[in-house]
Amino acid sequence: MIVHIVFFKFKEEQKKENIEQAKEMLLSLSNSVPTLRSIEVGENFANEERAMDISLIARFDTKEDLQKYAIHPEHLKVVDFIKQVTEYSKVVDYETN
After folding, report:
1. How many helices (H) and strands (E) does the chain have?
2. Which residue segment(s) compose the domain that 39 sits in?
3. Mean per-residue pLDDT for 22-26?
4. Residue 42 is part of a domain; what is its CATH number?
5. 0.85 exceeded by pTM
């Protein structure tokens, strides 16, 4: 199993609305990307300076399935939106049993 984790830091402009839209768009990928086994999106409530705004945890059977997800047209639509409304993101991919 492949675990794909992404943390997003959103721009201040329309932050709340953009977070909500991003969450909805990300969760909708479970209906359109066949290689996506599961997806979880959480909104942060910590007020620490180092805190990110939302996290994504997605699971795939193989690295190849993660690569197919990365180039899937529906995923790319979400990526385009998120790039416009975030300052930056961080990613961790790893393999587990």
Report:
1. 3, 4
2. 2-95
3. 98
4. 3.30.70.100
5. yes
Name the nearest CA neighbour of 40 among 66, 78, 5, 1: 5
- Number of structural domains (the chain) is 1
Residue 97: pLDDT band with limits 50, 70, 90: confident
The 10 Å CB-count burial string (b at 16+, else e) for 29-68 is beeebebbeebebeeeeeeeeeebbbebebbbeeeebbeb
List the Cα angle 36/89/3 in 5-degree steps: 30
One-letter identity of residue 77: K
**Contacts (Cβ under 8 Å, ≥6 apart) of 48:** none
Q: How many CB atoms lie within 10 A of CB 8?
A: 22
> Rounded to an integer, what distance in angstroms lies between the CA atom of residue 36 and that of residue 34?
6
Distance separating alpha carbons of residues 36 and 32, to the nearest angstrom: 9
